Amino acid sequence: MDLKHLSWPFFHDGHRADANAFENWASTHLQQFESNDGGDGVAARRIFELLGHSGCLHKTLSGPFAAHVQARIDLRTVCLLREICAHSSAIADVALSEPWLAALPIALYGSEELREAILPGYLSGKLLPAFALSEPGAGSDAAAITTTARLDGSHYVLNGRKTWTSNCGLADLYVVFARVEGTEGGDISAFAVDGDASGIALEERLSVLPPHTVGTWVLRDVRVPADRVLGAPGDGFKIAMRALELFRPTVGAAVLGFARRAMKESVEHSLQRTAFKKPLAEHQLIQAKLANMAVEIDASALLVYRAAWQHDETAEEVAQDAAVAKYYSTEAAFRVIDQAVQIFGGLGVVRGMTVERLYRHCRAFRIFDGTSEIQQLIIARNILKKAASQP
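Request: output the structure for the sequence above.
Response:
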């Protein structure tokens, strides 16, 4: 993988050292999973264990300069890790990213006791967490969730139905968002729920284009100790939005890895394949496609790492830059990969070809973790809010 963007001023030497070390590790350990499209979660769980054993997961919560978890998220590090993973294997990106999304609320909002009980297992790759926000009637409109939590003595009792949960039925722990009964307006709280808790049942696995293990599951009178509430009661919606805000630039980094891989495959193919008695690379229309792909990739990388740098180095709000990075990079990566399929011609739609896999894997990212349309709304609302506040 070409890591020339590490020379950009967004990064410190620690980032460069970590990225190069992880790239070397990935080239050795992740290549075997490159063509794995399985949605059963077995391969993803194995990769998660390998990531824990490598020490990589420590970097997702403490950055390149901390010796232990301090809930100081270095977003540039996570973006680099996701980009490298995705370039190697889509299922490796799933194994890295989805547990991190679930670990984020615990690291940022969990009590010290809860962090000590859960995070070491995550960091070692032995405890697989999952993020459970979406419901059949609440996807983009996360505030519409109907899962309930009723306080009963020293426990909350949870009832409801969750869907689009990654690692559904496999996770050791779920971060569940539920509406607390008896509070004004039905405030949402976040709960750390053991995966083997009584009353949890898998309803169905969903077969989707990318290699994600997602499904629908139910909670029936699931009892959760009151000390497993994350943050203050009623903070759940804020916690979910904060986690997704941090996650979105890393989504951009993942599809950037996909796009870079598509570009690499396209260049190699255009140099080797001949048409009309000369290599594809000598045809101007192919050269135009490659040029457009290169521009899309560079623009995406600049937006992704600008958002990550903004989070790491400034105290400014990053919701706008995160939305811009997620929106542009996911749309651009799909355009890049679509052109790669076109360059490959008939081979580009043969099941199992690298560019065909990338096409399937990339499409979902324009929907997952906030659709492109939701990102457009976030961007526009921030523009209008800023304009309204100016004299």
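Residues 63-70 have pLDDT under 50 and may be disordered.
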